[in-house]
């Protein structure tokens, strides 16, 4: 699913995309972003608000970034329907010209992904054997592009990680993540695992078994609900100290056994944003709060702007206390 504004901005929830403040990160800024959680409460200001950008083939990177800036965003997570090595230079130049900071480069391809409970386990992430090798190649390409553009992290859905650590697929997934994360580590990048298809405990187990210091969590506060895997407030007990990115969206729990729960405008679903933000403050979270809204049509821009105001007010109240 994807929608496009008249100004050329595209956004999407899962197909790709997603993190802290300015133009391309210098090594110094990247270091501050990665290590802020280890410092005191005054280390950085309240989290900035960003937006998820997803670019179709042939779409202007500059127009997409300027579209985000026109709505008052300073940061973004960005992804490409067809990521190539040739995107590095135009992306780096567009980021510098827009004064927008890309905090993560998202990559989920190649080939299709189906977001339901029956086809999802066979099509999402690097768990499925049939597409694993190709996706590892693309994730390494994303790490290379991120390094060349000064983007501090790459981001992906790992997939339906088996709950049973004795399942052969679990060990294979750990090995695959470690391969990609090692490649990222060699280039000074973080590897962010987005929540959703697995329970927080399973995600933490996998990160611990990968045993690298650059593997963290992109907490999609709605995905846990949409997949029926928990809620983001309780998830913070398990993975809170590992969170380096947030997707701000809202959702309802699934009501049947085949389809995911439904995404809804922020404030209309089951995400307790006030409680989540308090927990983020407790762990001294200093990354971005990145809006992700999967709708199509003329109302998408207005919905995103309303979400931005809601989040700004809540962030101001939470981090000023």
Can you describe what's shown?
This protein is of the alpha/beta class. It has one domain: Divalent-metal-dependent TIM barrel enzymes (TIM Barrel, Alpha-Beta Barrel), CATH 3.20.20.150. 40% of the residues lie in helices and 16% in strands. The chain contains 11 helices and 12 strands. The chain has helices at residues 27-35, 61-70, 88-98, 120-123, 129-149, 168-186, 200-210, 223-226, 232-239, 273-282, 299-320, and strands at 3-4, 10-11, 49-55, 75-80, 101-106, 153-156, 190-194, 215-220, 243-248, 250-251, 263-264, 289-291. It has an 8-stranded parallel β-barrel with strand order 3-4-5-6-7-8-9-12, surrounded by 6 helices. It has a two-stranded antiparallel sheet with strand order 1-2. Helix 3 links the parallel strand 4 and strand 5. Helix 3 crosses helix 5 (129-149) and helix 5 (129-149) runs parallel beside helix 6. It is globular.
Tags for this model:
single chain; about 325 residues; alpha/beta; TIM Barrel; eight-stranded parallel beta barrel; two-stranded antiparallel sheet; 12 strands
Would you spell out the secondary-structure blueprint of this structure?
Layout: E1 3-4, E2 10-11, H1 27-35, E3 49-55, H2 61-70, E4 75-80, H3 88-98, E5 101-106, H4 120-123, H5 129-149, E6 153-156, H6 168-186, E7 190-194, H7 200-210, E8 215-220, H8 223-226, H9 232-239, E9 243-248, E10 250-251, E11 263-264, H10 273-282, E12 289-291, H11 299-320
Parallel strand pairs: 3-4, 3-12, 4-5, 5-6, 6-7, 7-8, 8-9, 9-12
Antiparallel strand pairs: 1-2, 10-11
């Amino acid at each position: 699913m994807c929608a496009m504004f008249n100004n050329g901005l595209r956004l999407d929830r899962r197909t790709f995309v997603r993190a802290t403040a300015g133009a391309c990160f210098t090594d110094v800024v990247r270091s501050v972003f990665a290590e802020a959680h280890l410092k005191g409460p005054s280390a950085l200001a309240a989290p900035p608000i960003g937006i998820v950008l997803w670019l179709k083939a042939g779409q202007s990177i500059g127009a997409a970034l300027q579209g985000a800036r026109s709505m008052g965003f300073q940061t973004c997570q960005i992804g490409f329907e067809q990521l190539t090595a040739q995107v590095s230079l135009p992306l780096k130049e567009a980021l510098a010209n827009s004064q927008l900071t890309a905090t993560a480069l998202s990559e989920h391809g190649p080939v299709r992904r189906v977001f339901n409970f029956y086809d999802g386990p066979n099509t999402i992430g690097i768990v499925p054997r049939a597409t694993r090798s190709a996706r590892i190649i693309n994730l390494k390409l994303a790490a290379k592009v991120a390094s060349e553009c000064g983007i501090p992290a790459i981001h992906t859905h790992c997939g339906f990680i088996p709950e049973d650590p004795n399942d052969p697929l679990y060990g294979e997934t750990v090995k695959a993540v470690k391969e990609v994360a090692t490649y990222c580590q060699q280039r000074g990048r973080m590897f962010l695992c987005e929540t959703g298809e697995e329970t927080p405990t399973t995600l933490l187990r996998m990160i611990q078994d990968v045993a690298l210091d650059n593997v963290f969590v992109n907490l999609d506060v709605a995905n846990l609900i949409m997949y029926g895997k928990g809620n983001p407030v309780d998830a913070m007990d398990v993975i809170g100290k590992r969170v380096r990115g947030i997707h701000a969206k809202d959702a309802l729990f699934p009501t049947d056994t085949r389809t995911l729960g439904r995404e809804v405008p922020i404030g209309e679903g089951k995400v307790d944003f006030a409680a989540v933000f308090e927990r983020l403050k407790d762990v001294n979270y200093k990354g971005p709060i990145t809006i992700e809204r999967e709708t199509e049509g003329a109302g998408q821009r207005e919905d995103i702007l309303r979400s931005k105001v809601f989040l700004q007010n809540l962030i101001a109240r939470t981090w000023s206390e």
